[in-house]
Model the fold of this input.
Amino acid sequence: MDDATRQKIDQDVKAHPVVLFMKGTPAAPRCGFSATVAGILDELVGEYKTVDVLADSQIRDGIKEYSDWPTIPQLYIKGQFVGGCDLVREMYENGELHEALGVKLDAVEPPLIVVSPAATRALEEALAEATSQEPGGSHHIRVEVGDDFQHALSVSGKKPRDVEVSVGKLTLLLDRASARRAAGLSIDYVEGADGPAFKLENPNEPPRVKSLSVKELRAKMLAESALQLFDVRAQKERDQASIAGSRLLDREAQQHIMTLDKSTPLYFHCHHGQRSQQAAAFFLSHGFSNVYNVTGGIDAWSVEVDPSVPRY
Amino acid sequence: MKLGALPGGGPPIVERIREAIAQALPGAEVRVTAGQAGHFSVSVRSGLFQNQSRLACQRLVYKAIGPLMSGDRAPVHAIDQLETISS
Done:
């Protein structure tokens, strides 16, 4: 990068308390990551400086070198590099960004969380173990709920801005974003196929299409007599190869599905699992809550379950 | 074209990302998944992240894969999610 470019960047970074290097402008962002960060800043601060790196290729390359950071957008607050989209979003969710920008942080109401007796015992054991390894440390149970509703439990110390939930003698710690997604969460400890494991159920989780392997499908077909398995392919593909017990998803079958109880498990397959994913998503959007897509489709079925079904 | 495969052959980009990180951060556990074309998600667990800020951790990873992200024809356009876990 030449001196003029470095100086120009340096001036911008030092002259404004908040500077966002982005693709496009907040009103017309040219990249999703830039749009996300601009959206967050729009919410938290009235005014901030933006630099459209697409308008100047010197700046576009220069800022990457200046910050030692290979991606756009890049956020500076009070002359300090804060990070890219990932970090900014995370800091927004846990409240760090509010602090850095001097914005007042609203309190997050501690969510109601139910912990079963078995889970309480298992969590207390984990805490006891952590305490024996590190006596005198502060040990609590951290509950994380990701934006994709992936859950994680761990033993952790308290962190700033944590939301604390007392359940019996346990103190559960949640970051602000997790806390907002955890109202009504239940934590259980149950016997599973691979031994006992925590089981978390979150009523806030939107229903989604669940994936099912062909082997799991096989097991379900053996266990349930009237399994609703629909073949999303065309009739001429069915003529070449089909799974016994499946039904072509034609208009009549669609009408039939719509008459079923919304909690009825529905299974969809196609050749490789792409088209059936869309069909499954369609019925999910019509209120069905137990919708499965068969991963790998009939092709995987031929390979892994029933070689007598021809591949094509 | 298979997702994550280079038009000109060679190892898939997922593999190149994984290798670049593993080389820069010896002993790291690296998971790379492909999203839309040119977009990837990366999760790295490494002892080198201990007592480092998230910014510093992400820098270490970005430094490793920088060469794959630079230039107009870079195989890696964006990292959708970058997770750094200290071990």
